[in-house]
Design brief:
It is a single chain. The chain is mainly beta and 421 residues long. The protein has 4 domains: 26-150, Immunoglobulin-like (Sandwich); 154-177 and 345-415, conserved putative lor/sdh protein from methanococcus maripaludis s2 fold, CATH 2.40.420.20; 179-187 and 266-342, Efflux pump adaptor protein, beta barrel domain (Elongation Factor Tu (Ef-tu), domain 3); 190-263, OB fold (Dihydrolipoamide Acetyltransferase, E2P) (Beta Barrel), CATH 2.40.50.100. It has helices at 3-23, 36-43, 157-162, 276-279, 405-415; strands spanning 54-58, 61-68, 75-82, 85-86, 92-100, 104-109, 111-113, 116-122, 129-137, 140-148, 152-154, 166-169, 171-187, 192-195, 201-206, 213-214, 219-225, 231-235, 240-245, 252-253, 260-263, 268-274, 287-292, 298-308, 317-323, 335-352, 357-359, 362-369, 372-377, 379-383, 387-392, 399-403. The strands form 7 sheets. Strands 1, 2, 3, 4, 7 and 8 form a 6-stranded antiparallel sheet that branches. Helix 1 (3-23) crosses helix 5. The relative contact order is 0.15.
């Protein structure tokens, strides 16, 4: 086992030991002192009624508490009974108060509907709270209270530090929006030059070969002029590498085609292809991160020019990003990837993207209150590698886990604090 996995295992063991130690400190404590693990175990041990809800009894009177989740939003439904037979809900007045971690209190008032009592107030996620139920029938009031936790665990500060858990307060952030690009490395137009004979004639000698490095002013060929029959030298106009050779000794020059093409491999740019759906959002001056296909090399540059593509039917544009030579890691003709920053804006509430974890069918972060951690189901907006906009499910200023969230999730999964009511 490698050191990282060993460390995670030790943290998991310490969290388990902590939970068992707290759970064994005695019965009869308040609900706030009961561990989520113990509360979850107790929650699984209650009497269920005909609608699979929690049965609350006070003598002959009973109330079955359910959360109806088959509609667009979860709502409470209460089914009253007298001597285990359904009771007309119009004969019962009821209310529920949910004390959440924080704390905050959600209150529900009920009215009769069909064979149950209902409340229009939605039971917001997470369904994790201390429940207080009050009901009045025939002038007699009955009250009950019980914990109903999900996605909650307690971890000591020492165990959290050992697990590398870090937190921060949720607030505003600046999100930069980016677009992925594909392209290739090419020699810039300024880094290429064609070699022509000044006067038509026969090539007497041609010493340059493909791939050969040459220096500016170096003699590459000798040509015998067809008019004067004098031989003159043809030299390299720039330093670089022979990229193309279109002639051989004995051939006649002067037909317009260059004898040689020289390219300077140190003068490079990336050419990115912009399709219509993206071209309208890309501008010169925007920053681009250029990455090799293997992901080993990166370069941060800016778009210097945007030119029309060669195919007018596709309406493709080409964006040029100058590249540093970097010792030859960028080679002409090789493919590259890019990510261009097309805009940024401030959002009122965001969390770090790495803090977001899956939980049931939700994307969540783990809120921290004291030594207690609990899921917060998020409604998400725009996302970048660093930040994700939060549209709902989290209050500004909430302390949430950034690093080590996987440990919190593992401890909650182990505890069995499930979606139960």
């Amino acid at each position: 086992m490698n050191p990282a996995n060993l460390s995670r295992c030790l943290v998991a063991i310490s969290l388990s030991t902590l939970a068992l130690a707290v759970a064994g400190c005695g019965e009869g404590g308040s609900a706030e002192k009961q561990t989520p693990e113990a509360a979850a175990a107790a929650a699984a041990d209650y009497e269920r009624g005909p609608h699979n809800g929690r049965m609350l009894r006070d003598g002959d009177f009973a109330l079955e508490v359910t959360i109806f989740e088959e509609g667009p939003e979860p709502l409470y439904r209460l089914y009253p009974y007298l001597k285990d037979k359904p009771l007309d809900p119009r004969q019962v007045q009821a209310s529920i108060a949910l004390t959440r971690l924080g704390p905050s209190v959600d209150r529900f008032a009920f009215t009769a509907a069909e064979d149950y009592l209902t409340s229009p107030t939605v039971v917001a996620e997470p369904h994790s709270f201390d429940v207080a139920v009050a009901a009045t029938h025939a002038g007699r009031q009955s009250t009950w209270s019980y914990p109903s936790y999900e996605g909650r665990t307690i971890i000591t500060a020492a165990a959290a530090r050992a697990g590398g858990v870090t937190t921060q307060r949720a607030g505003g952030a600046v999100l930069g929006e980016s677009l992925p690009l594909t392209g290739r490395v090419e020699i810039t137009p300024e880094g290429q030059s064609e070699v022509h004979a000044r006067y038509p004639g026969r090539i007497v000698s041609l010493s340059a070969t493909l791939g050969q490095r040459v220096s500016r002013g170096q003699v590459l060929a000798r040509v015998e002029s067809s008019e004067s029959l004098q031989t003159y030298s043809v030299t390299a106009p720039i330093s670089g590498v022979i990229m193309a050779r279109n002639a051989n000794p004995g051939a006649i020059t002067g037909n317009g085609e260059p004898m040689l093409v020289i390219g300077d491999p140190t003068r490079l740019h990336a050419e990115f292809f912009l399709y219509p759906r993206d071209a309208e959002r890309v501008r010169t001056g925007q920053r681009v991160e250029v990455t090799s296909l293997a992901g080993e090399h990166r370069f941060n540059g800016v778009i210097q020019a945007i030119l029309p593509g060669t195919d007018p039917t596709s309406q493709t544009l080409t964006a040029h990003v100058a590249l540093d030579y970097m010792g030859g890691v960028w080679r002409p003709g090789l493919g590259v990837q890019g990510r261009v920053q097309v805009g940024q804006g401030e959002v009122p509430l965001a969390v770090q993207t790495k803090a977001i974890m899956p939980f049931r069918d939700f994307q969540v972060v783990y809120a921290k209150v004291g030594n207690t951690y609990e899921v917060r189901m998020l409604d998400l907006g725009r996302r970048t590698d660093e930040w994700t906009e939060v549209l709902g499910g989290l209050q500004p200023g909430t302390e949430y886990v950034v690093d080590g969230a996987f440990l919190i999730r593992a401890d909650i999964d182990k505890s069995g604090a499930s979606h139960d009511h």
